[in-house]
Amino acid sequence: MLELRPNCECCDNDLPVDATDAMICSYECTFCRDCVDMILHNVCPNCGGGFSPRPIRPSVARREGVSLSFHPASERRVHTSFSREALIAFSERVKGTPPSER
């Protein structure tokens, strides 16, 4: 089950379950679109992969057992262990390589 993290791991801005600017990598690292575009340049600082928009989990169970009420978002805030300078340096080294070739 996809963990819907409540914040950007870089700037700590809130990313509610219906946020259209939430981005995730294949390991569910979660960042806001501004940080992905302006700081990370589509490079996950943890795995080196790219980002995709985080899906929005339905709030209404249109099928039994499938909605936020059955599978709520996480309340655990996650923060990157890297400094902003380290994030920028890492993304600068990797951003020229397409995600499919990393």
Report what the structure shows.
With 102 residues, this protein is an alpha+beta fold. 19% of the residues lie in helices and 8% in strands. The protein is built from two helices and three strands; from the N terminus they run E-E-H-E-H. The chain has helices spanning 33-40, 84-94; strands spanning 22-24, 30-32, 52-53. It has a three-stranded antiparallel β-sheet with strand order 2-1-3. A hairpin with a 5-residue loop joins strand 1 and strand 2. The longest helix has 11 residues, at 84-94. The two termini are 25 Å apart. The mean pLDDT is 96. This is DUF1272 domain-containing protein.
How does the SSE layout of this entry go?
Elements: E1 22-24, E2 30-32, H1 33-40, E3 52-53, H2 84-94
Antiparallel strand pairs: 1-2, 1-3
Keywords for this structure?
3-stranded antiparallel sheet, elongated, alpha+beta
Largest sheet: 3 strands, antiparallel
Q: How many domains would you count in the coordinates?
A: 1
Strand content: 5-15%
Q: What topology, given as strand order, has the largest sheet? A: 2-1-3
Query: Radius of gyration, rounded?
Result: 14 Å
* Mean pLDDT figure: 96
Order of helices and strands: EEHEH
- Structural classification: alpha+beta
- The percent of residues in helical segments reads 10-25%
- Morphology call: elongated
Q: How many β-strand runs?
A: 3
Low-confidence sequence ranges: none
Distance between the termini: 25 Å
Count helical runs: 2
Protein name: DUF1272 domain-containing protein
Pfam families: DUF1272
InterPro entries: DUF1272
Organism: Oceanospirillum sediminis
